[in-house]
Queue: 2 jobs
Job 1
Amino acid sequence: MRALKTKYDIFRQKAYIIIYGSNTFAGRLFDLTLLGVILLSVLLVMLESIEKLDAKHHTFIVVSEWIITIFFSIEYALRIICNKRPLKYIFSFYGIVDLISILPMYLSFFVPGSRILSVIRALRLLRLFGILNLVHFTGQESQLKLAIKASRTKIIVFIYFILVVSILLGAIMYVIEGPESGFTSIPVSIYWCIVTLTTVGYGDIAPVTTLGQIIAAFIMIMGYGIIAVPTGIVTAEFANAKRNDPDMDGKRKCPSCTTIIYNEDSRYCHHCGEKLTHG
Amino acid sequence: MRALKTKYDIFRQKAYIIIYGSNTFAGRLFDLTLLGVILLSVLLVMLESIEKLDAKHHTFIVVSEWIITIFFSIEYALRIICNKRPLKYIFSFYGIVDLISILPMYLSFFVPGSRILSVIRALRLLRLFGILNLVHFTGQESQLKLAIKASRTKIIVFIYFILVVSILLGAIMYVIEGPESGFTSIPVSIYWCIVTLTTVGYGDIAPVTTLGQIIAAFIMIMGYGIIAVPTGIVTAEFANAKRNDPDMDGKRKCPSCTTIIYNEDSRYCHHCGEKLTHG
Amino acid sequence: MRALKTKYDIFRQKAYIIIYGSNTFAGRLFDLTLLGVILLSVLLVMLESIEKLDAKHHTFIVVSEWIITIFFSIEYALRIICNKRPLKYIFSFYGIVDLISILPMYLSFFVPGSRILSVIRALRLLRLFGILNLVHFTGQESQLKLAIKASRTKIIVFIYFILVVSILLGAIMYVIEGPESGFTSIPVSIYWCIVTLTTVGYGDIAPVTTLGQIIAAFIMIMGYGIIAVPTGIVTAEFANAKRNDPDMDGKRKCPSCTTIIYNEDSRYCHHCGEKLTHG
Amino acid sequence: MRALKTKYDIFRQKAYIIIYGSNTFAGRLFDLTLLGVILLSVLLVMLESIEKLDAKHHTFIVVSEWIITIFFSIEYALRIICNKRPLKYIFSFYGIVDLISILPMYLSFFVPGSRILSVIRALRLLRLFGILNLVHFTGQESQLKLAIKASRTKIIVFIYFILVVSILLGAIMYVIEGPESGFTSIPVSIYWCIVTLTTVGYGDIAPVTTLGQIIAAFIMIMGYGIIAVPTGIVTAEFANAKRNDPDMDGKRKCPSCTTIIYNEDSRYCHHCGEKLTHG
């Protein structure tokens, strides 16, 4: 009994290294297999949504989806089993995603048509960020994250500003254009305003009256102008992050105290006074 | 008589603290209630504009709007009463907004259909900026304001330039394309030109002739290129504001001369030579 | 005879000061009048292009246009007469614009319908830059000009790149989509490609086949990405111009040698060693 | 025989200088001729695709295309003959482009309709970058290349992020909107999502339901916001490249130690203390 438990423990430990780690060959192989299966599962959901393909290959697609669902179920079970703190995994973001990406298939036994919800499986694509988590890559990513994090408050103020402006101008355009031009209600007008302000411009709704077109032109120029604001925010952060980045490409380090020498033509270390050689 | 006046004075003072202040619990509660009612009133105007909903719940919506209007009227009266300089409030931006957001409902007694003007109430959403006026937030906002203020002149020149270019190219496109392609008049052509230059591109009007399409392509590339100008202006301002910002996140200050230490690994103050401690 | 000539000379001199200068009251008044008449003339051409308005007020518009044309003709004559180097003016950019903005009206005697060419009068709007030429304004404008000038070569390379990419992808899309989807010829496909690459997206032509949509998505993301290039170019120039700008807002100057003190916490002038005071 | 070989060798050497070089007059002339012929050939393919023009001038166009094809064939043969390492050329990018730009015409003998593939000839336009390869120009180009190269990893992460987001939101929109609104399948929905996220907005597919429009508005604002990310990346790189660029426009160098003097009004070299003269 004890030997069995030990075997089970060893199995759990091995599974943990394979599933969560990526240093061993098996772990790397598992990561790549998972990557492939996730891509395949997303592809399958896509193909199924194309009516012509679904009509032709319905059985093949359904069988494949079941195979993938079972694979994901086993993976989900293993992740719970081999984790020392299974609850933490279950209620983590990835844990929830992993669960709801397999649920719709089982649900389809009871609720017909619920299989369409398996599109949520696409969320598993986010795992790829983790799988492709090379050192260099992460460095870049974290720099991105830092810049975005630092400018978060400004961006929230900015989005709030856009929303208030859109509600105001949307309401005004509703009064000016009226339902005949497609501005059937204020929410629709607000939707149109966001479409215009962000320079997307579908054209499904477009102003017809002269006054409406003048205000629309004003909104466009404003939108064109304020696109500068988020760009300015993020760029300033990037430039800042870059300036403070200690891993700058190919900078000299002081041979004595390993401080990074920012100024290329320094002749003495600014930290310890050690004389520097060029090169 | 005198006691009454004092009571009234105390009431005014209390009302002032609640309405204009946000330090007391009651003041904070009032702010949040106002926030909720403003959001609700905007939502109501939106819902009323949706024909189907209005047909179903007309009485409910009208009654709710009257309740909100009365609430706003009382708030408006209180703001005038408890303010020591009521005229200053009445003719301030917010004072006018507060007034014209309650007027349309009362007007609807005399002029039927004027209730639609209560969409102007959406302007009260701007008060949210004030209500959400946390210290940190304001810091961000004022930095935004500074950057925008500093680049104001450049942006005006820029908008003027866009308008002149649009009039010129709009007139040319009117001559080339003519009314058959939707370019029914020069103002419409100018509208089209702004739609194109700002990369919105509704497609309600689009050039059909070869020459028209060539000029349109030219306008697009130009618009694509000059989008860089406002961005460049604002970004340079942001980067500048960032560099000069003394409240940079968590910078050390010299304990002796309170100079800000920009370089994180400095061991001596670059200003007074005081030895610095890490931490 | 000699007295007459002197009178004529005085008239020419006065006219010169009024027309070309803007320091005297009369000169300023002339500038503002010209500004008004130019705006009016552009407005008239616009209104005439609106069929309904033209039908109603045809006589009024034509008479007004003739009055403006005569005003412009007199102005043109005066500009030639009072200028010491009339040929230089005649063949300058503004001289040519001034001439061709009055020609179409006179031409309409001989060639009916040529009056439409008077839209070229909109070019005179460019004079407004000159008229509004306040000192502060020009400073901003010239900084804009410098930044644009410095990044000119890069922008030309960039536009050339966009054109080559558009021709290539336009040709490919023509082969893939074919005339049925609106890609009737390669030039039209190139036009579509520019419309897409610049994120304008009219939607008058849109890919229908799967392969076409994949390539279109690729073009969009590319266009979305390379919008960064002109922005990056211009922003870097702006930031540079800003850094080198000696008229930076509110910088201290050394009381001894008037050198600008860039570093706010300097205690000695970096140029002459004079001790600086704060504030 | 030997003399002939020598003559042939001289011919090869001369041809090499003319075709590959651009220092001699003949070489320059060849480059410009090639430039003209490439532009002409692209123009011809374009014109042929316009049905009306092709119907009218079919013979003229076909004959011209044959002349150009023969010109290109001779050029291709010469490039192989005079090159000392012909295989390197044949399998180089330009070698393959040169070959496949003449193949379709010869193929059209056997496979009718294959002449349309000669649009691939547009790829030869890329050669123009080489031909216009002036020193100044290249400097600019290489700075562009450096900035793009440095930000490559970040841009790949960014594009990957856009793709994942598009798949996720595309799938969700497919479930919400359904085939009735034009969201016929998940791939089509993803295509729509990219069209929206990049602010292109054709309008061939547009959300109709309220929930769909809310999500669309959210996608637009997100797209509008994240357009800042690539811009921020590239701008930071540009600003960096600019700062580190040793060939900065007209900077002084210290006559003693050749250090670049960044500060224009320095009177002493900041490196070796040499007195500087203004210049």
Note: Chain B touches chain D at residues 199-203, 231, 235 (CB under 8 Å).
Job 2
Amino acid sequence: MKLNSEDRKFLTLAIETATNNIKDRGGPFGAVVVSQGRIISHAGNRVVADHDPTAHAEVEAIRMASAAMGTHDLSSCVIYSSCEPCPMCLGAIYWAGIKRIVYASDRYQAAASGFNDEMIYMELALEREKRSLTMDHGMKDEGDGVFRQWNDFPGKVLY
Amino acid sequence: MKLNSEDRKFLTLAIETATNNIKDRGGPFGAVVVSQGRIISHAGNRVVADHDPTAHAEVEAIRMASAAMGTHDLSSCVIYSSCEPCPMCLGAIYWAGIKRIVYASDRYQAAASGFNDEMIYMELALEREKRSLTMDHGMKDEGDGVFRQWNDFPGKVLY
């Protein structure tokens, strides 16, 4: 789908947020969450400034929007990002129920500036045993037991 | 690698955290971050309770550990999780620089209880155009311009 003038307005804000964030001790990324034409949140990457490796622009904007809307369900929202999301952010977008993202730069450009997005995409596509991350597992029956308790729990809320 | 007695101790805490979390309005997931044999943080899934779709157990435990250690770099840490991480959490683990995860249950068991981990793994493996999420892009030159400014910025901190 081609970007319309509203898309370009919100994507411009995401890019401006990224640019301003550089001077504010943040990484060069910005994101905006919009619901029904209204800006709910905008945020830059705060990984280094906030000592939080999860504080990417998209995650920050999603957290703020969820808090503002009082729900984990952002299925009415579109997210605009200055750059293609990394796998963590893409996962967050799916979990938030967001149905559309509009982005400007991409993972290859991010990689050229020293960001690991493309490496993480490649790692996730590998078999577990071939990843650089060591993934050990055990106590499966005990772990499965948590889900048995969950299935039997009358107060559970699915999401 | 097989789990040793210390691994089993920390993994048991992750499972207990998940179990206790069910009764505390959380999802059936728990995670523990350990550095050099010392527990830095443990957390359950708080998505529904905290109105935050990113508040998975691993992300919460990573955020708490980073705050406690005053750095986004958790490369000295191991993470223990009651369940195999979803793509968002796996991405967060890579960004945190964590080198090893130990987990108990798995994504298929999570899917059997109604959690979308496996669906998101499959979505990420698809070509962009084939995903259920609409991904539009444009204004690439403006987006790339943020990285040009970043590359020229003397105060940048890579992570």
Note: Chain A has a mean pLDDT of 96.
